[in-house]
């Protein structure tokens, strides 16, 4: 029997979970074969999640059930608005992405679907539901990033990997999982099923997003 809630959610989200963390897109990042046009479209679309992701983190701060959880969640907001934002801007410059594509691109259907999920969870979800979507978004990225055998030469690729494989990020994901495990231990069957549906939906959104930027 699965020992904790997050493992229970992940096991019931296969084979989609493995399809995300072992996606060919990530393999191309690792070995340096990622075409600039693919990386450009991916980063342009990924940047459109930042505002909604911050709002989701803000909703988690508001709905958390204890002070220490609010502090941890608030600290993650600073990371998104500093190190990660700086990476995006430097990468956009290196890839020659024009300002209009940075701030107001045409959105892919996969981007729209994931943003809609974040917004609906932010507006209508409780703490457990918000944690569920946050955990999928962060845990899947940690899982694929730690698979990198070595850092590629291109900083656009290398730093994107490192942002999701460094010790601080790994500690953040460990905390997210433990927090969702803590909250999940007290959920009834209906609420656990609701979290599972969200976990599976968010995992599918991750697959669709990678697929949208991979031939």
TrEMBL record:
Pfam families: TENA_THI-4. Keywords: Hydrolase, Thiamine biosynthesis. Gene3D superfamilies: Heme oxygenase-like. InterPro entries: Haem_Oase-like_multi-hlx (IPR016084), TenA_E (IPR026285), Thiaminase-2/PQQC (IPR004305), Thiamine_Salvage_TenA (IPR050967). It is an enzyme of class 3 (hydrolase). Pathway: Cofactor biosynthesis; thiamine diphosphate biosynthesis. Belongs to the TenA family. Catalyzes an amino-pyrimidine hydrolysis reaction at the C5' of the pyrimidine moiety of thiamine compounds, a reaction that is part of a thiamine salvage pathway. Thus, catalyzes the conversion of 4-amino-5-aminomethyl-2-methylpyrimidine to 4-amino-5-hydroxymethyl-2-methylpyrimidine (HMP). This is Aminopyrimidine aminohydrolase.
